[in-house]
Design brief:
Layout: E1 2-8, H1 11-17, E2 23-29, H2 32-35, H3 41-53, E3 57-64, H4 72-76, H5 80-85, E4 88-91, H6 95-104, E5 109-111, E6 113-123, E7 126-131, H7 147-150, H8 177-187
Parallel strand pairs: 2-3, 2-4, 4-5
Antiparallel strand pairs: 1-6, 6-7
Amino acid sequence: MIRSITQKKPETEIERLLKGLNRIFIIGCGTCVTLTRTGGDPEVRAMKKELSTKGKMVTGQTVVPVACDNLTREFLSDFGEQINQADALLIMTCAFGVQSIARQLNKMVIPALDTLFIGKESAVGLFDEICTQCGTCIIGETGGICPVTNCHKGLVNGPCGGTNHGKCEIDVNKDCVWTLIYNRLKELDRIDSMRKYQKPRNHLGEPKPGKFKLPTT
């Protein structure tokens, strides 16, 4: 399954963000951060213990089903009194979840996690980035394998000169993505797809914040 991959912020950063905020309500999420063990029930309980030992009063805690869902406000209504008593909400979700909750509740929100990338679990406890959401998808020509994400240099027209026996020169334990693309296209009898020149990427990207509007019919 595709997930937002997160990691806990350094303890010193959380302490700095919570400076002057003594009554805390903790919120975790039942989806991505539960899978990555950064914001599920065990981590929320551990955070409560950690804050309590530092003199913070935890007014309550919960793990919402889906933090980035607009129904989160309804779920949190059961904790209204505990939330009202808090100086801030310490949110153990991805950045999308933090922002969703911030829009729905009139409370100071503090993120406890850093959001790293969109990824999937490739082995038990190991998560690999699969998409940088660059907006210029070329995987139709590369057999469904993304070189932008999987090449350390983001090359879109074949491997660099440093590839060695199918391995990446930057990470010798990593397969060169262009070797994987070649093998995939060869298996599909679509090697000619590699001969299509891809224009240089626009590293400036689209103006921020991004917007997308459905075309009118």
